[in-house]
C-alpha cells in the first residue's frame, strides 16, 4: 500500500506512539486488555488508573479524542446490553431514581461498560496510530503463522477494491429502486453477492497467476520481512519497526 | 455478535483463545490441501469477500439489525478449512484495524463465529448432500439449512461460555431463551442469504463452489510453459 492509503481508522501522525514498534504496541494492547478483563469489578480505583494511563497514551499520540470518541460507536450494541443488565439480572434489588433494579446487575452492567470502553479505546488507539502494513509486520514478529499474515496481507490490500466494488453494486441497485435492507429484495442482493464472490475469486486467480509468472512457488519472498532488503515502495523513513 | 472485552472473564477468554489457536493451526495445514500454493492469494481474496458480505445488515426487529456471519457460506464456497481461515482472518483484521470485537475476546469470536458456524454449517451441508439426489439444485437449500442451524448453535455455545465465565448474574435460562430466540431470527436471515448466494454462484460458476465440486468433472488449472 502506498502512502495516503491508510486503513479506515488510521490517523496520520508522527507522535512517539505512531513511531513505536508495532509488535510492542500489539503486545501492550493484549496485556492491557487482559489486565482490564482480569481486574475484579469492585476495584474502581484500578479502573480509574487504567483510564488515566490510556488517556495519557492517547494524548501522547496526538490523535484528537473526538476522532476516537466518534469511532467508539462500534460499542453501542453492548452498551445497550449493559444498560439493560440491571433490569434483567437477579439478586437483591436497589432503588435508582425510584426504579427497583438488581444491585449485582447494576454493578455488572457498569463493569461491562467500563471494561468494554477501555478495551475499545485501547484498540482504537492502536488502529489510529499503526499502519496496516506495520500491524502485519508486528504480527509476523510475534510469530503469528506466516500463512495467516499473508492471508491478512492480501485481505488488507484488496479490502478497498472489493468493498468499493460492492459499494458500486449497491449504488446501482438503489438507483434501480432496490432497497438492499428489505427482505423483498434479498434475491437481488444475493445475486449481487454471488457476483461479488465470483469477481473476488477470479481476482484471486489472476493475482495468483500474476505471482506465478513472477516466480511464486507457494511462499512469499515478501517486503514485509523486516530483515528483507527488497524495497516495498514505501518511504524509507516510514519504516521504523 | 462480535463479543467485546469484559464480557467474559480472563480465564475463559484464554481458554477459548487456546481452542481458536488449535483450530486455526489444523485449518492452516488442511487448507493447503484444498488450495495448494494458491492458499494465500485465494484465501485472502475470499476473506475480503466475507468481510464485504458482513457489511450488509438485515433488520431483526426492534430497530436492531444482524449481519451475516458467513461461516456456512464460506465453508460451502471454498471448503471448511479455507473457510475457517478466511473467517478467522476477517475477525483478526476487524479486531486489530477496526476495533470491532475485543482483543481478549478474539479467541471467543473465532470459536463462535468461525469454528462453530463453519463446523455446523459444513457437517449439516455434507449430511444433506449425501442423502439428497446428486443434482446442482440441492446444493443451495443444503447450504441454507447448514447456515440456519449454525447460528443458534453458536448462540447456545455462547450461553455455555457465559455460564462458565460470564461477568453478570443473569439467570442462565433467560440468557439461553433470549439468545436462541434472537439468533433463530438471525439464522433465518443468514440461511436465506446463504442459500441465495450459493444458488447464484452455482448457476453462474458451479466449478467455484467447493461443496458442488463432486458434481463436476475435475478441471485443474493448467499452466503452460511457453518457449522464450
TrEMBL record, chain A:
Its main location: membrane. GO terms for cellular component: ATP-binding cassette (ABC) transporter complex. Residues 220-241 are annotated as: Disordered. It is a multi-pass membrane protein. The chain crosses the membrane at residues 20-38, 44-65. GO terms for biological process: cobalt ion transport. It is found in: Cell membrane. InterPro entries: ABC/ECF_trnsptr_transmembrane, ECF_CbiQ, ECF_transporter_component. Keywords: Cell membrane, Membrane, Transmembrane, Transmembrane helix. This is Cobalt/nickel transport system permease protein. It comes from Nocardioides perillae. The lineage of its organism: Bacteria, Bacillati, Actinomycetota, Actinomycetes, Propionibacteriales.
Automatic annotation (TrEMBL), chain B:
The keyword Ribonucleoprotein does not apply. It is found in: Cell membrane. Signal peptide: none annotated. One of its GO terms (cellular component) is plasma membrane. The keyword NADP does not apply. Gene3D superfamilies: 1.10.1760.20. The chain crosses the membrane at residues 7-28, 40-60, 72-97, 103-125, 137-168, 180-204. It is a multi-pass membrane protein. Keywords: Cell membrane, Membrane, Transmembrane, Transmembrane helix, Transport. One of its GO terms (biological process) is transition metal ion transport. PANTHER family: METAL TRANSPORT PROTEIN HI_1621-RELATED. This is Cobalt/nickel transport system permease protein. It comes from Nocardioides perillae.
